[in-house]
Amino acid sequence: MKEIFVEVKYTEEGFGRAKSDEAHKAKFQKTYLPLIKKSSFLSSQCNNEKVFLANYQILRNLVHISDTAHVVLLFPSANSKVSEAAKFAKNNLLNNAGRDRLNIVHLDELVSYFESQSLKASVKNYFQNFRAKYCF
Hints:
Elements: E1 3-8, H1 22-38, H2 49-54, H3 56-62, E2 69-75, H4 80-93, H5 96-99, E3 102-106, H6 107-117, H7 121-134
Parallel strand pairs: 1-2, 2-3
């Protein structure tokens, strides 16, 4: 593995869609469709413009999955909308090989780990404040 792409969702309600306008359609054809066709990790339905635009923000990340690259989705476990979208993407937008390269990490678990490893009170305090703000 050489690259890790990380999409962080602190408080957002999900992954964005794109308008089905000429600008997004052109960007799909010119930028994303060549990446999708080259990928051996995306499901075949990702070739569909409507599917891509409906899952625009998450697929902009998933197109980077490769033999040497993984994608990490990092968000609070209590964010059910993002969690559902991440599970949908993993189960429907990726094939078996792609699923192994998408990692779902819960922000609160990561913060707990950092807290447990912190020796300085100021660092622990930082992560406690971070948890209160972003790990609802």
